[in-house]
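Researcher: Good morning. I'm working through a list of sequences from a screen, and I'd like to move beyond sequence-only analysis. For each chain I'm collecting a predicted structure so we can compare shapes side by side. This is the next one on the list. No need for commentary yet; just the structure.
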Amino acid sequence: MFGGDGPLLVDLAAVPGRGVRVPPARLGEILNGLLGGALTFDDLVRGMDRCGMYMGDAGRPAFPMPAPPPGRSFPALPSTDMSLLVRTSFDDEDGWHALLDELGGIDEDGCVGTDEHDGEHAPLTALVVDDRAFEGLHPGEVPALVPSDEHTTLVALADARTFAEPGRPLTAVDLYDTPGQPAVVPCREVGSLADNLEIGNMDFFEFVAMEGVQPWWERP
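Model: Good morning. Structure tokens for this chain:
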């Protein structure tokens, strides 16, 4: 259903589960660099372009993947075949409840969503995870925490940026093309991202804002 170009390298040591695509012609060179110590997986992550390709030519992402602090562990995320909305910042209780209200409120099953569609922005339907055990969770750490028994569409993090910037941006996390790659998008756009991924209409990277380029959802 999903898939990117080029071989996918998956981190098994520093941040297990995060991935980086590499050009096929450079696979041997890059693997030798990793094995010989000339490269680290962090080097690959820092060198990713908008499409998740190491040293690719698709432009630099406006919000590159942050480096998580070492030595942290998190429990597994809930198993679901929909999306997950995970709270990772707990400094603004009013902001959190305002976000939930904007997304349609939580129902009896612990999910946000609404049947209302404004014709432009698809509503996000997601299981809500409001647990301090996930405080400070970074995008690259997410893929290893998602159970494999269900096809979770994506994970959206409500982090410190969500409660500090206009539009309540969420950090959506790719689970398939380049696991762990983040896309910071206004909360009103995350439902469209999930829907388009589910039907294969758009790729994850199309929602990754590029440095110096106005995102398509902000254009008149």
